[in-house]
Write a structure and sequence with these properties.
Blueprint (H helix, E strand, L loop, with lengths): L1 H8 L15 E2 L12 E7 L8 E3 L5 E4 L11 E4 L6 E3 L21 E6 L4 E6 L13 E6 L4 E7 L10 E7 L4 E6 L6 E5 L5 E4 L15 E2 L2 E2 L12 E6 L5 E6 L4 E6 H4 L6 H5 L3 E5 L3 E6 L4 E6 L4 E10 L2 E10 L8 E7 L2 E6 L2 H4 L11 E7 L11
Antiparallel strand pairs: 1-2, 2-27, 3-4, 4-5, 5-6, 7-8, 8-9, 9-10, 11-12, 12-13, 13-14, 15-16, 17-18, 18-19, 19-20, 21-22, 22-23, 23-24, 25-26, 26-27
Length: about 400
C-alpha cells in the first residue's frame, strides 16, 4: 500500500497522450525561416523532480533525469507513462534510492544525460558528485535494453576524470563503435569510449574549442550569470551532437558563442598526437548561446538560445570556402518556454527539456515561475544537408 501511495504522489498530469495528436498547443512567434511549428506540451513536473535530461525511444517512450548537483529529487530517472501520466522509476526503485555508504554500480549518484540509440538502447550518463568518494561512486555510463530493462554494459570513469571534472552529455556512434561524452568543467574536452574494449581517453582538454572564451559570458539582465556562490559562471564543453553519417562531432562550451566540430575519425585515432588532433578541429563561427545540442537526420543542428528563451536551428553551409553555420529560429519566445537545454528526436519530433536552470541554479537568475516541462515540435520536412556529414 505504501509503494502504491508513493507512486501516486509522483504522478504528473500529462497534458495529452503522446500518440493521440491532442497534445496541448502553445502559440509562438512565426519565423522568417519557415512556418513556425506548434509547440506541444508532453509532461510537466513539480519541484520534487527537477528535470534536466531526456531520452525518447523509437516507439515514443519518454525518459527523464533529475541530477542531484543542487538538490536531490525523489527519483533520479523516470519513465513517463503516456496513458496514465505516472512516473515510474527506472530501471527500478532501488536504483533511485541514494545509498551514500554503498558503491555506485547499482544506484544513481547524479544522473545527468540520456541518449537512445538506433537499436533502441537507452544510455544513461551518471556524472557522480564532487562531494562523494568517487573511488567508490565514480562517474559511469550505463546501457539498457529497453525491451527488457536490463543492463547491457556499464563503463566506469573513476580513473579517467577527477572530481573537478563534470561529465555532461552523451552521444553513441555505432558506426565506429564509440561513445562521446562532453566534460563541462575543469579543462573541458571530450571523452571517447571504445564500446568494444571499454578503453576511454579524455581528448582536447584545455583546447581553445573546449574551454569557454573568457571574453564572453551567459548574460542575465545585462550581467554575467553567477553560480550560487556568487562567482561568474564558466562552463566548458557542454553540448555535443553527432552528424547523421557519424562523420563529425559538433560541440561547444556553454558560456560563450563559439561553435566547433571535429571528424570522429580523428577522435578515435589513438595514434594521433594531441597537437595533431587539435589541428583537426574546425571553427564554425559564432551563434546563439546554447546548452544542449542535437542534429536531426536531415543534418540540421538544434539548440536552445538560453539568453533569448527560444529554440534555434543551424544549417551547415560553406562560406568563403570554409564550413559555417546559418542560424534560424525554430521556436520563438513563449511564456511557457524558459530554458531549452535537453533534446531528443523520435518519429519526426524534436523533444525539448525545459529545466528552468536559470531560475534554480544561479545566484542572479530569474524569479522561479512555471513547472519543469517536456515539450515537442514536429520538424519541417527538409532536404538532407550533405555538408553536415
Amino acid at each position: 500500500m505504501k509503494d502504491r501511495d508513493a507512486h501516486r504522489t509522483m504522478r504528473r498530469r500529462v497534458l495529452a497522450s503522446l500518440g493521440a495528436g491532442a497534445l496541448a498547443t502553445l502559440g509562438f512567434e512565426q519565423t522568417a525561416h519557415a512556418a513556425a511549428p506548434k509547440l506541444e506540451t508532453v509532461a510537466t513536473f513539480d519541484d520534487d523532480f527537477r528535470l534536466v535530461g531526456i531520452g525518447v525511444s523509437k516507439q515514443g517512450r519518454v525518459f527523464a533525469t533529475a541530477p542531484s548537483s543542487v538538490k536531490r529529487s525523489r527519483y533520479s530517472m523516470v519513465e513517463v507513462d503516456p496513458d496514465t501520466g505516472a512516473l515510474t522509476p527506472f530501471p527500478d526503485e532501488s536504483w533511485n534510492v541514494f545509498k551514500p555508504d554503498e558503491d555506485g554500480a547499482h544506484q544513481w549518484i547524479s544522473l545527468q544525460a540520456l541518449w537512445v540509440d538506433e537499436h533502441d538502447h537507452l544510455w544513461a550518463l551518471d556524472s557522480s558528485l564532487p562531494s562523494v568518494d568517487q573511488t567508490r561512486q565514480p562517474p559511469k555510463l550505463v546501457e539498457f535494453d529497453l525491451a527488457t530493462r536490463k543492463i547491457v554494459r556499464q563503463f566506469d570513469y573513476g580513473k579517467l576524470v577527477t572530481p573537478k571534472d563534470s561529465l555532461n552529455d552523451i552521444r553513441v556512434d555505432h558506426t565506429h563503435g564509440f561513445a562521446y561524452i562532453s566534460n563541462a568543467a575543469n579543462q573541458g574536452g571530450v571523452v571517447a569510449t571504445n564500446l568494444r574494449s571499454g578503453a576511454s581517453r579524455l581528448l582536447l582538454a584545455g583546447d581553445r574549442s573546449s574551454v569557454s572564451d573568457p571574453a564572453q559570458h551567459l548574460i542575465f539582465r545585462d550581467q554575467p550569470a553567477r553560480k550560487l556562490d556568487g562567482s561568474v559562471l564558466v562552463l566548458q564543453t557542454d553540448g555535443i551532437a553527432l552528424s547523421p553519417e557519424r562523420k563529425w562531432l559538433y560541440y561547444r562550451p556553454l558560456t560563450d558563442h563559439h561553435y566547433w566540430r571535429i571528424e570522429t575519425a580523428a577522435l578515435i585515432d589513438d595514434t594521433l598526437p594531441a597537437q595533431a588532433l587539435a589541428q583537426r578541429v574546425q571553427y564554425l563561427g559564432d551563434g546563439a548561446l546554447t546548452g544542449g545540442l542535437i542534429m536531426s537526420p536531415a543534418g540540421v543542428l538544434y539548440g536552445g538560445d538560453l539568453e533569448k528563451r527560444t529554440v534555434v536551428g543551424f544549417d551547415v553551409i560553406e562560406r568563403d570556402g570554409k564550413p559555417a553555420l546559418r542560424e534560424h529560429t525554430l521556436v520563438g519566445k513563449h511564456r511557457e518556454l524558459s530554458w531549452a537545454d535537453g533534446f531528443a528526436y523520435s518519429k519526426g519530433y524534436l523533444y525539448i527539456a525545459d529545466s528552468h536552470l536559470h531560475e534554480t541554479n544561479f545566484f542572479n537568475g530569474y524569479p522561479r515561475e512555471g513547472k519543469f516541462a517536456i515539450f515537442r515540435v514536429r520538424l519541417p520536412n527538409q532536404p538532407t544537408h550533405s555538408l553536415a556529414g
